[in-house]
């Protein structure tokens, strides 16, 4: 079995699951934890989604692109991407994230 590249341990919600973390950092990019075969081996991601912890600037640029594709103006997209990544980084130090946090984040992500 192929060994996944080592990540920083970040787990997030980038792939749309609401009730559990569905992304994890391997080799500084995010894998979709739901995207695996029957043995639980993760598939390589189709696109390079930068880990917001390992690659803050890349992650901001990635989300800015996503927001722009979703119709945000360039300045809105930049602002939204910055605050999204900032929030992720702030929160990841906290063990007890609340359901309200998750819901607010998902609402934000769903808008694009
Ligand atoms: Zn990472």
Q: What's the order of the H and E elements?
A: EEEHHH
The radius of gyration over CA amounts to 14 Å
Quickly count the domains.
1
Helix content: 25-40%
State the strand order across the main sheet.
1-2-3
- Class per helix and strand makeup: mainly alpha
Number of strands: 3
Biggest sheet layout? 3 strands, antiparallel
Mean pLDDT across residues? 82
Oligomer: single chain
Poorly predicted parts: none
Overall body shape: globular
Strand content: 5-15%
Question: How far apart are the first and last residues' alpha carbons, in Å?
Answer: 36 Å
Small molecules (ligands, ions, cofactors) in the structure: zinc ion
Helix count, per DSSP? 3
Tell me what the structure shows.
- The protein has 3 helices and 3 strands.
- It has 112 residues and is mainly α.
- The protein has one domain.
- It has a 3-stranded antiparallel sheet with strand order 1-2-3, with no helix packed on it.
- β2 and β3 form a beta hairpin.
- The site of zinc ion (ZN) has 8 residues, from loops.
Provide a brief overview of the structure.
This protein is mainly α.
List keywords for this structure.
112 residues, mainly alpha, three-stranded antiparallel β-sheet, 3 helices, 3 strands, binds zinc ion
List the helices and strands and how they pair.
Blueprint (H helix, E strand, L loop, with lengths): L10 E2 L10 E4 L2 E4 L23 H14 L4 H18 L7 H12 L2
Antiparallel strand pairs: 1-2, 2-3
The chain binds zinc ion (ZN).
């Amino acid at each position: 079995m192929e060994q996944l590249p080592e990540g920083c341990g970040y787990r997030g919600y980038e792939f749309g699951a609401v009730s559990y973390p569905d992304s994890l950092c391997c080799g500084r990019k995010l894998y979709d934890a739901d995207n695996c075969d029957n043995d639980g081996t993760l598939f390589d991601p189709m696109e390079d989604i930068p880990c917001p912890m390992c690659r803050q600037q890349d992650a901001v640029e990635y989300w800015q692109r996503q927001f722009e594709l979703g119709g945000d103006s360039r300045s809105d997209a930049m602002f939204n991407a910055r605050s999204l990544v900032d929030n992720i980084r702030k929160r990841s130090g906290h063990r007890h994230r609340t359901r309200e946090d998750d819901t607010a984040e998902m609402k934000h992500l769903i808008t694009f």
